[in-house]
Amino acid sequence: MSLVSGEQIDGGLRISSASPRDYFALLKPRVMSLVVLTALAGMMIEPVKVHPVVGFISLLAIAVGAGASGALNMWYDADIDAVMSRTSTRPIPSGRIQPGEALGFGLVLSAFSVATLGLVSNWLAAGLLAFTIFFYAVIYTMWLKRWTPQNIVIGGAAGALPPVVACAAVTGSVSLASLVLFAIIFIWTPPHFWALAIAKAGEYGRAGVPMMPNAKGEKRTRLEMLIYTILLAPLGVVPALLGQASIAYGVIAALSGLFMLRLAIKVWRAADAEAADRDCKKLFGYSILYLFLLFGVIVIENTIVTVLRVMG
What distance in Å separates the CA atoms of residue 46 and residue 134, rounded to the nearest whole number? Predict the structure, then answer.
């Protein structure tokens, strides 16, 4: 099954054959899965009851909004994606989807997700979702990414906003609990992404993207990764200290944070480029597990509490 479409180029018609899988790839499903988890944690950490249908549709709208951001990002960054091995097989640089199709797809999904969240939940949440999409697609993708080595630091705010949007969807306001979750993701983003950027510094350089390793040097990047991880390790425990999560969560967050800090220290102390590259790959992989672990525990704990209340 395929969706066949065309785009007029130089007086001729270039036919593109895109499968549903190609359009799904535009949504950056791996990123979307993380958005769903962090948004769900943002909903469940609040001591309020929400109708399951409202909660599900709100979560779906946030996920679709994240996917729309991914599609708009791939549309604008097609030139960069084409010269990097990690992204060269994406639907646009590989020619399976035309840029105009991706743009239209992203815009339609953006409008749909924001309108749906506003109508089903409230317009504060919808406004925050619209801002998140705009920040990622315009401020980060079109401006920061190609302008400053701090692109990931500032642009990380977009990826950190889903718990805040989800909190607003169920409470109609922004709470301290959601801002703590925002802060965890925001501080986590630089060491997570720079670990990958060190391994891909050459490709970013050829693409003209001023990532921290090729703009400020690998040594400076490794030091900043360590600093951010030092901040992240205790920050991950804060939900337990504020009573927003259990003591068990606090223990898991503390131990996993210390292990991530240990990996960051190894990266910082790496004796040569080969060792740094190897340790960065370990840190990158573990950082994904770390974030899934923290937010997964919050979701599991609150699910158990909800089930016990229903049974009781």
Answer: 26
Where do the CATH 1.20.120 domains begin and end in the chain?
Answer: 176-312
Is the pTM of the predicted complex or chain greater than 0.90?
yes
Q: Which fold has domain 23-174?
A: Tetracycline Repressor; domain 2 (1.10.357)
How does DSSP assign 214-256, residue by residue? HHH-HHHHHHHHHHHHHHHHHHTTHHHHTTSS-HHHHHHHHHH
**Do 268 and 226 touch, CB atoms closer than 8 A?**
yes
CATH 1.10.238 correct for 176-312:
no
The 8 Å CB, 24+ separation contacts for 247-254 are 248/297, 248/301, 249/294, 249/297, 249/298, 249/301, 252/293, 252/294, 252/297, 253/294, 253/297
Q: Write out the chain's pLDDT in tens, 312 residues.
A: 333 344 444 444 455 578 999 999 999 999 999 999 999 999 999 888 889 999 999 999 999 999 999 999 999 999 999 999 889 999 999 999 999 999 999 999 999 999 999 999 999 999 999 999 999 999 999 999 999 999 999 999 999 999 999 999 999 999 999 999 999 999 999 999 999 999 888 889 888 999 999 899 999 999 999 999 999 999 999 999 999 999 999 999 999 999 999 999 999 999 888 888 899 999 999 999 999 999 999 999 999 988 888 786
Question: Could you tell me where in the chain the CATH 1.10.357.140 domains are found?
Answer: 23-174
